[in-house]
Batch of 3 targets.
Target 1
Amino acid sequence: MYAFLIRLLLMLSVLKLISSRAEFTNFKCHSLDTDFSEFEYCTLKAVNRSYKYLSTKIILHKVPITKVKVKFGLYKKFSGYRPFLYNISVDACQFLKNQKSNPVASYFYELFRSASNMNHTCPYDHDLILDKLSTDVLNHRFTNILSFPDGDYMFEMHWIAYDITRAIVKMYWTLS
């Protein structure tokens, strides 16, 4: 009986060491209306083989911004990127007032919250910054909180202000 328990504990400890690993592969930012906003930088930086991070700065030219929606979707690569599980639109101003109102939006917002200054409700009267978003957050979100299958993923966001799409941001990563 004790030998069985010891084997079981050893197997569980080995399984705990085996986990998925996320790695950023690309990061694209595109401003559709440069009179309204533009990207100062949009970078994927590799510090070494195992540590990469994303950073971007969006300069807002027409502030304050009081009406923002975000349309986002998660895509998985199957002979091209195809929709995978989530594709929703959120009124960002209302969501930030009550983050529990939309659990899916909250799940994805938690990816960026700690690395960005987009953590308050409207109006936005300053530039928006995402600074050094690392794969540690992805690893935690996509393996520990919700377990996703291995593969290549893209998270696409359409930023809509005053009912006009102003920018598109695409984040690519591999889960292995």
Target 2
Amino acid sequence: MSGQAEPVELHAALALARAEIEGALDMLLPIEEGDEARLFAAMRHAALGGGKRMRGFLVLEGAGQFTVARESALRVAAAIEMLHAYSLIHDDLPAMDDDDLRRGKPTCHIAFDEATAILAGDALQALAFQILSEEDTHADPAVRCELVRCLARAAGARGMCGGQMLDILSESATQAHTEAEVGRLQMMKTGRLIEFSAEAGAILGKAPAAQRHALALYGREVGAAFQIADDLLDLTSTPEETGKRTAKDAAAGKATLVALLGPERARSQAERLIEQATRHLDSFGDRANILRMLAQYVLGRRS
């Protein structure tokens, strides 16, 4: 689907989800007042007004397979988007990737300062877990605990944070990484949060184990393909298209499958991952068609 537009049905669903998630974030984020106004402003700068909202969209579509209340799903979607925003704030810092553009606007430490950016990221992460733990998210405390447990696992040392550590270490490595090593790095850094996003709707819906597992596997394959697509965009797109600095991975010596395999082989691998992802949705029938479209769209995006 490279270069193709989004299918009309997917485009409409994505646009609606973006608007709903943005509204939920606006409602749940602290307003800019009091002595902490600068911190609140930085949190809102990082979390509002941009982004694909793919992780939140996965929550909503997964929840839709089990007739979960939209309000509950939106709270979880917003929490995951907050945690994602926190990771981007820290990823952009001078000590990490040292980026000055994100989602088409100055990164948080450029718009404010490094100390405020670090605190804004910390506060967004804490708020994400607070929202998941609240009764408004789900009446069943066991469901809330499971959401907290799974997000913590996806975001921690065996997930996103650990993947970021491996990414940093890869820049100074003295020998080339294997395909398996790069795959593990990217699964941890990007894939685990996407996998949880797809699974979260099933947790909310108290789904049977087999269907919960199927959505998690779908998210895992889509997450791996998404990272390859992101690396291809870094190589082939402009900052105007992506809303962030491009051509930075090669300059930093980052370990990516695109660098290791070349663009064509990496794209072929992403296409195989998408095929595998859609097969995991067989048990959901036609009601998972939007998720199938999303998987196909991942490789054709330009931002």
Target 3
Amino acid sequence: MIEEVQLVAHLKSETNKEEAFRALVSLYKERLYWHIRNIVKSHDDADDVLQNTFIKVHKNINNFKGDSKLFSWMYRIATNEAITFINNNAKRLQVTNNEVQQLAITNLTSDVYFEGSDIQIKLQEAIATLPQKQQLVFNMKYFEDLKYKDMAEILETSEGALKASYHIAVKKIETYLTKD
């Protein structure tokens, strides 16, 4: 497998850019898709946001300074694109971000790409009650099993703050799932 430093160099060179970009997409599209899907819920929306993410990566690769891993930089772009997507939907529908997420969860049962059970729908509902940062932290830790170090780089915050957010999110989800 091509090293990240080499991949970035190829992405920034005019001669190898397109080939390197195809390799980049192949390498990261599935992980980024699931990261985005955990935020926006819908397969079609996740596909759209993923496409926008790769367009931004392609356009802005020359601005990548290498201060973080390429993976972290792309995850940050994907996260921001997914949040922007939710915010834009909320504005367009003239509802809150939480209402957009509740609508997306309601639509999951009719999404042919969703193979979840009732408990998974209930879990998604519980996650949607969390503040946005706790949602991100919970999804990244629980579904993607990212290390706090990587999450700190992606979300540009401390590992301690992320651990606290995750712990609080888990408690809130447990409370939500055990009520009734």
